[in-house]
Structures are given as C-alpha cells and as structure tokens.
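Message: Study each token:
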Amino acid sequence: MTQTSLESTNPALAEQRNDASFESLWQELNWRGLVHVSTDEGALEEALAGDPLVYYCGFDPTAASLHLGHLVQLLTMRRIQLAGHRPLALVGGSTGLIGDPRPSSERTLHTPEIVAGWVDSLQNQIKHYISFDGDSGATMVNNLDWTQGVSAIEFLRDIGKYFRVGTMIKKDIVAKRLNSEEGISYTEFSYQILQGFDYLQLFRQYGCTLQFGGSDQWGNLTSGTELVRRAENAHVHALGTPLITNSDGTKFGKSEGNAIWLDSELCSPYAFYQFWLNQSDADVIDRLKVFTFRTREEIAELARSVEEEPFKRAAQRALAWDVTSLVHGEEATHKVIEAAEAIFGKGEIAEIDEPTLNAVSAELPRASVPASEATAVRLLVDTGLVKSNGEARRAIKDGGAYINNAKITDGEAVLTEADWLHGKFLLIRRGKKNLALVHRS
C-alpha cells in the first residue's frame, strides 16, 4: 500500500546539512564522487539548481535488510532532499518478485509472502535515512500497487510496444548473460521493462523527473527515460552513482563473502563500527566524502592527519563514529567504543551487555569449560593462550594473566559464580593483546 504520512525514526536528520562552500548541489555531488554517469549533464545540473523537483530511487526486496550499497543511495537521496527536492522511495513489491538479472545466473524466486515481509522491513529501514516531513517530505511507494492489476495483454500492448528487442539485448548485463552458458530467462530479460514502467508511472502520478541508482543499473535507468520519452514525449533525467570499490580494486562492503548489513541483527553495531575503523589510509577520505556529511574543510583536515599522523587514525575514527551513529545511533556507538576499550583493560567489562560482548568476542579463540572445573590454569590452556599448565603458572606468577581484566593471583582456585559475566562468560587475557573467551558448559 502506498504510504504518504510516515515519520523518520532518526533524530540525526535534523543536524544534517549540505556543504555551503559549494556553489551548487551538482558540484558537491561530483566532489563527493557520487556522479559516474548521467543523462544530459548540463540540463541535470540546471534542474537540480532550479525549482523543487520530484526524484526517486528504487530498492528491491531481495533480502530482509539493506546493505552498504544501498546506503550510498540513501545518503544521496538525503543530499538531494536537503537541497529542497522531494524524494519518492520505491520499494519494489513487484520487481522484487522477479529480481534484476545478476551477472552469473538466475535469481532464486521467493514466495509473495516472503517478498511482502521484506518490503515491510526495507520500508522501515528507509524511514531512518530520509525525512517524511515538510514541503520536501518523502513519499514511500510500492510498484506492486500499479502492476498487480495490469493484465499481461495490457502490459504488452500499453508498455511493451515501446521497447525494442535490439536495444534491450545490448544492455551490458543482458549481453553478458546471453553470452553465458546458462543464458537468461524471459522473466529476467523483462525486468528492464518493469523498471521503465515504474518511471513512467511515477512521472504520470507525481511529476517525477529524476531517477538514480548504482551505475550497474544504468541499462534499467535509461529504460525508464526512454519509455517516458516515447510514451509522453517528455525528457526526464537519470543519474548513476559509481560502484564503491577499495583502492586495490576489490568490491567494497564485503566481509568474508557477506554483505555489511544495516540491520543490527545481521551485522552487530560492534562489527559495523570495526568495519569502518579498519578502512585503509588509501580509502578513508573517499569514504568520508560518500558516507558522511562532514564538510570539505573538515575532510581536508582529516586528509592532512592521514598524511602527517596516520598512526592516530583520526580519519578512520571519525568515519566509524559518523556512520555507526547514523545507522545505529550514538548510544550504541558509545557502547561499542567502550566495549572495545574494556576488553583491553581500559574499562569495566562487567558493564558490557551480552549482545555487545558476544559481538566483541566473535573472532576470539573460545573454549567451553564446566563451572566446577574453571581454574585459571585450565582456562589459559583450554583457550590456547598457553601450551601447558607449567606455562600457565609462569604467566600467572609473572603477573601477565587476567580474567575479566582482573590480574590472576591464584591459578588453581575454581572461579566463583560472581566471576561469570552474564552468568556464562569469562574473558581471559594473557599480556596486553592475547584474548580468549570461555563459555560455561
């Protein structure tokens, strides 16, 4: 169902501003590296500098959460909105049932019930990043609203007649699939017609004149501009943002093959913060431009720190703070920072809540030990922090072994109930940086 009276769930929106040092929004978008390809550049720059326009970006519900690639689009939506233009946030209840073609193989088709649930989930996430209030308040739309009542004959007669197969098969992704061993189904081949239909419908219903998305969607974006031109004899705009890659050419936003999700249940705030904190010196300034609202002057100062004092990692800390606070809130960001400090002895570890402790310790060596047998010597050995009981006793004697940040003085005593964090965990440390987690069996 189309929704027009939503409220944002993010108080940070009120603090966001475009950079006043730029003469135009177009200049800032270019400086931030958000323009990869567009229709008539001069006309689009003029349109963005003129009277408020209506624009849209689409998000297909192919999973229960948005990820970092979507965050690029959400923040671009917000920057354009801050310039006084009105966004339409489209969640594809119909296109999500099909899925845009992937480079390698056909997508798995999910049931309408699953897709409908994902639509709701994505709509709730999108509300966090754009405003639904005021003259430039956003409108949430679902393309299932205008496709589910259209028959196949109507679709072919009224929409399909404007598309030329010769043009459609030249689209990069379609051409790759046609030349692959698996080929491409008519279902996925037709995706670009459905997306073009979205643009035509939004042009007719809302006067929408700009669509944008990732540059890998350029074929689908221009399907819409061409359909509006043929069906309505009108010229509308399309903008493709670049795909974000690391300086070494690898795909950005992947961790061991998994996307960095915006949902805290799929990617914890701690893991999310660490992802940004671990950005390389070669990438961090570009990330600040794309993913934060820091000004050109502020980012220039952080770039200086990268050059002159890289060991301080000021740029990475600023990036991690800004993006984690935006996505998960300042309170959660404070928690993960405090938790990271606490496990290395700079804070009170007992104050870390269980989900954060689990996230912080996710990559640590682990061991499972019965509470009745939990002595410091055994814990050090079972977790692999030492190789033998004798080595464990020497570490304790030398004052270099800790349980929950408390120095161990008696390696043979069984730990008490009060020692177990949340009744089930013990954090073991040898020296300053060698850590492990014990789980109560």
In short: The mean pLDDT is 92. The chain has three domains: 11-243, 258-355, 366-440. The two ends are 49 Å apart (CA to CA).
